[in-house]
Each structure stands twice: as structure tokens, then as C-alpha cells.
Amino acid sequence: RRCVQETAFVFFIRRCLSRETEEYVETVIGLKLLPKFSALLDVENEKICFETIWIIINLASASSAAAAEMRALGLHKKLAHKVKSSNQELAELALWGTSNLLADNVAARDEILSTDIVSIIEGLISGKVLKLTLLRVSIWAISNLCKGKPSPSFASIIPLLPTFGNILFVADEEVVSDLLWSLSYISDGEKDTNKKILMYISMKRVVQCVEHSNMTIKIPALRVIGNICTGSYTEVEEVVQSGCLQAINRLMAAQEDIVTKECCWILSNILAGPPAHISYVLKMGLLSSLCNVIRSKADYLVKREAGWAIANACTEGTPEQAYDIINEGGMAALNDMLDVQEAEFLHTALCGIAALLKAGQIEDGENKIASEFEAIGGLKKLVVLQMHQNEGVYSKACLLYTSPSPRDATLTRMPSSA
Q1: Among 180, 193, 250, CA closest to 219
Q2: How far, in Å, are 141, 292, 375 from residue 288 at the CA level?
């Protein structure tokens, strides 16, 4: 009889909450029923557990305060236990409920990560034939556990990488998208994790994904590549050898701002590396593509990334590469950037120009690079910039105008205004 009453109770509450009105949510929370729902998760009746978890999902998604109270009651641990259920529908719902208890809160994320939820998910998705919906929820849950700043410790996530490597080839866009977002968060965290990502994740497959028609797959794939390209020489080398630059070349030709911005950021990371990596970009003709972005009608933020990439090539390249950069339009693009009054944009351009002028000083006699800079109107722009309100821009412009061989060509990010 008690079981019948509890079943009727949770059915009634769930029907009320399914109407999606704030009034019912506030009423249920106000009645202090959360401890009751916690107790109902302990019963053996799967119907009652199923309906109770639905109630928890609705309350947690509607109220972060309710989600916090449910975590305090230990509901995330009880839900993690239910994920182990042999009933895949119940396991799927429990996993969904666990993710909703995160409430976009990094403290809650770390609290849930401290349980054995990741190892439970690993057991769920490793070597089992799962319903597609359960696989989707499993990967979505992992992506939620990986995101947020500061980044979580990925020590518990790393054991999942071998399984991720296999799942990345699954023919389901939702699964692949959430998996790539997970990898983008992991690769943006502790740098040592990128070595392990490269051990288990096919970069060729990730590169394939950057050309996917679905933007929710394309963007996280680009983020994974960009994050890894902030790493060591060998890590960047592996990404480049996977066909990354060829794919970027095709993507930039499409001129979609959101994609072009990501591509410019990746190129900026590669061009911040050794001359060998700069050579790859030059040989592919991508320096010219970056210059085209500066001259295009692209959004300012896209142009800013392109400017950083060009300036990185100038400051990190060899004197011989400086002439290749100029021939690809690098000097002209940096000169065009001097027409924009935003301080960080100008600082980037001035640092790139300083590096090119310094490279020109290696020749005996006339500084041909300085002469070319003057010929395209660069010196006149430096005169104007000596009246700029930003002290960093003013100082850099003065130095470049008075010295054809500036010593400081270091490219560092600066405050955007004085």
C-alpha cells in the first residue's frame, strides 16, 4: 500500500512540474520535499526511482538553489549509483540528473567529480553495446564535467581517452560534437594532458571534423587543434603533419568570420613557434591568406587574430623569412593595420613592423625594408601615431620613426587603452 501511495505521489508531482510553470517549482521547493525525494531514490521500485529522477531533473534545471540543496543532501551520489543500473533507461535518466545538478557551478562540478561518476561512465561506455540515447547522454555529461574556469583536474578524465579515441569515429553528430567539446576543454587545461590526447586521439580524425558541415562539430575541432598548437614542437609538428594546414587553407577560402577567426588563432599559435613551423605556413600560402583577412570586410576581432598571426611570423621568423613575409604582403598588411585606432591592434602591427625593420638591418648599406616601409606611407603614419593617447603606441611609434633598427621587437599583449 505504501508503494502505491509513493507511486501516486511522485506521479502527481511530476505531472505538476511538467507544466513548466514557475509557480509549481516554487511550491514544490517551498513544501520542503527535497529530503523526501532523496529518500525515494533508496527504494527498490524502478518506477518510483524513474519518476523521482524526473522530478529532480525538472527542479535542478529550474532552480540553482534547489540544485545546491540536493547536492547537500547527497543526491548526486545516489544518482551516480543509479547510473550503474542494468536498466539503460534508468541509467540514462540518472546521468542526465547528475549533469543537471552541476547548475553551471565549478564548485558543484568539482564536488561531483570527487565521486566515482567518471569511472562509472567509463564502465558504461567501454566495450558495451549502448542505446544511442545513453551514449549521447554519457558523452554530454562528460563534456559538462570538463568545462568551466578554473579548469578541473583532468586526472580522473584521462583514463577515458582510449575510449574517446574509438567513439570519435561514431557516426552520430551529437556524440561527436560533445566529445570534441570535451577534448577542447581538456586540451585547454593542464598542458601535460595534450601528450596523452595525442597518444589516443587521431589528429587526422579531428582535422576531418574541422571541415564538417555541422558548425557544432567544426568549431570544437578547431579549438582542439588550436589548444594543442600552444604546446611543444613535437605536439605542433604532429598536428601539422595530420593535414591541419591544408584544411585551414580550404576553410579560410570560404570566408566565414566565425571559422576564419578560429583558423587565424591556430595559425597565430603555429607561427609563434620555431622557423620550421613558419616555413610550413609560408609554403602553404597561408601568410597571404592572413593578409587578405586584414584587407577584407571581416569583423574586427577576426582581423585582430590575423594581425597577431602576421606579427608572430615577423617576430619569430629568420631574417630570410622576413623577405618572404614581405613578398606575401605582410608589410603592406601591417601598414594597413596602422589606420585603425584601437591600441592593442596598433601595438601588434608596430611590433611586427619593428621585427621586419630589424631584419633589414642585417644587409650592408641601405635598409631596403625600411625604404619599402617608407614607400608605402609607413613613416607618415608613424608621425600621426606619435599623437596617439595610448602611451605604449606613442612610445613605439616614436622609437620606430627615430630608429631604423629598433632593438625591441618583442610581441606581448598589452592593455587596450591608456
Answers
A1: 180
A2: 42, 6, 20
| pTM, 2 dp | 0.90
Select from 185, 209, 208, 183 the least CA-distant residue to 198: 183
**pLDDT at 267 exceeding the cut of 80:** yes
List CB contacts of 66: < 8 A, sequence separation 6 or more.
Answer: 25, 29, 34, 59, 60
Q: Is residue 369 exposed (0-12), middle (13-18) or buried (19+ Cβ within 10 Å)?
A: buried
CA dist., res. 182 & res. 197, Å (int): 11
Overall residue count recorded for the chain in this entry: 418
pLDDT tens for each residue of 22-55: 777 888 888 889 999 999 999 889 999 999 999 9
Question: If you search the block for the grid coordinates 592593442, which residue do you land on?
Answer: 344
CA separation for the pair 412, 284 (Å, rounded): 26
Distance between CA 396 and CA 341 in Å, rounded?
14
The CA distances from residue 16 to 6, 21, 23, 56, 60, in Å, are: 15, 9, 10, 13, 15
Q: So what's the pLDDT on residue 23?
A: 77
Rounded Cα–Cα distance for residues 198 and 232 (Å): 12
- Are the beta carbons of 322 and 359 closer than 8 angstroms? yes
Cell 611590433 belongs to residue: 351
Q: How far apart are CA 101 and CA 258, in angstroms?
A: 32
Amino acid occupying residue 259: V
Can you tell me which residue has the cell 587596450? 416
How is residue 407 written as a grid cell? Answer: 632593438
pLDDT of 163-187, one tens digit each? 999 999 999 999 999 999 999 999 9
| Separation of alpha carbons 183 and 232, rounded Å | 18
Q: How far apart are CA 338 and CA 312, in angstroms?
A: 17
Average pLDDT over all residues of the chain: 90
Interatomic CA distance for residues 393 and 409, integer angstroms: 13
The Cα 305–Cα 159 span in angstroms is 34
Q: What is the rounded distance in angstroms from the CA atom of residue 6 to the CA atom of residue 42?
A: 12
| Residue from 413, 271, 402 nearest 347 by CA | 413
d(CA 120, CA 178): 18
* pLDDT over 50 (residue 413): no
- Which grid cell is 296? 577584407
Q: What span, in angstroms and rounded, lies between the C-alpha atoms of 328 and 283?
A: 10
